Structures are given as structure tokens and as C-alpha cells.
Amino acid sequence: MGNADAGKGSDLDGRTVVLTGGTGVLGSEMAAALVRAGANVAIPARDPSRASELKGRLAAGPGKGILLRADVLSKESLEEAALEIRNRFGRVDALVNAAGGNLPGATTGPQQRFFDLPADAVKQVVDLNLLGTVLPCQVFGRIMAEQGEGNIVNIASMAGMRPLTRVVAYSASKAGVANFTQWLAVHMAREYAPGIRVNAIAPGFFHTRQNHFLLYDEKSGELTPRGRSIVDHTPMRRFGRPEDLLGVLFWLLSPASAFVTGSVVTVDGGFSAFSGV
In the predicted model, what is the mean pLDDT of residues 128-144? Predict the structure, then answer.
């Protein structure tokens, strides 16, 4: 099955999927693919007016895509969005937490030692990645508990499984997302309904706006030494493309993975399997 065919046979037609981070590089690709599969996709965004390109992709159907004003770090705004989504579609079948990212201020380097990292930058990254996953799970997980079924897919990271140099706050927060995924899978199944599944996808190195400054030299446009090292340590010899996540995403959202919960699935071109030797 090619990337263009992702979603076929996934039983998402008419299902409602809430997708945070849907205006980002990875999230927008997921949103467009879900709509192509016939899903109703609701995207909470801090500023929906800035997502004009995404709106065009969502309008292509056959599913429906809507953007709502909400912030993953504001439980109140998420609850307002949840009410609007239920009024519009009646229920919430799945939640995909793709909101996240890194900041230069929370990254070590020649000009910024670990000892000098500003606390506010570290906090922003940890909040965005970890708290920005926990709060949507609280709001939309409550709906799933009421329904007795549901499906949550969090976006973790290879950096959370194998700590990477420089991105200290990002690595730590994504490790928290992976751990939280496993905790929540047990909690939802045992406390509420065994039909509620919680899993995560751990992408390897994907080129996005957030990490561009680490991978490519601003002046030359060539790979930085770090970018070259990543490619050299990835057996498939490239960075991931957003569409590379779609097959795993649709599998986790489909009945084909009905007995899978508490798993963190790696999509990294073999990076985690390579020792460097």
C-alpha cells in the first residue's frame, strides 16, 4: 500500500477525529489524509485564520474538516471546543495529539551552555509537548469514558526514547509523552472501558520548521554537521517525510490494531536499530 492509499479500509468513514497540532507540518498531512479517508476532522488551533492552505486541503473531502479556536495549554478553551465538536458531530471517536515542538532557547550549543538555558524556554517546550498532550487527553478522554470506547494516538519522538544531544527539554518532554501514553492506556482500560485504546507514534528525524535551524545551515542551505550525522546514522539515508507517518496512524486508528494499546510505534528509517557500527 502506497502513501496515497493510506486510510483505505481503515473504517474511518464518518468517524470523528480530533487532531491537535493540525496546522503544523506533520499534523496538516495527517488532517488532509483523514479527510480523504472520509473522517470528520476537528482541529483546535490558536489562530485558525492562519491556516488558509490547510482549509483548502480539508475542503477537498470526502470527509469534513473544521478548525476551531482553542489552545492545547488551556483546558477551558479545549472544553469549549469539545462542546462545539459534539454539537456538530455528536461524538468523538479518536484523538490524535500532534501538537508539540522545540525552541532554540531550550537548545544547547556553542553559544548557549546547558547551565545557561533560560527556565522559561525550557518550561515552554515541556508544557507544549507534555502538558499539551495531557490536557486534550483529559478533555476528550472524558468523552470517550462516557461513550465506553475511543482511540487516542499521541505523537512522541525518537528523542524521547534515545536522548539526543542539544535538545534537552524536547527529549525529556517527549520521553514524558511516551511514558504518559503507557500509563493512560492502562488507566483508561481498567478504570473506564477496555474498548478505549491509547498508543503513540515515535517519529525519527523529520524535517519541520521547528528543527530546520538544527539540520540545515542558514547561509548555505547545506546540511549542518548534525544534519549530516543524522542521515549517516539512518539506514534509509534520509529524513522522514510527513506522509511516512500515515500508514501507522491509520493502522492504530483502525480495527486492524484492536488488540494494541500502550504501544509506542517507531517510524524512524532504522535510526533506533543502528548502533553506529
Answer: 98
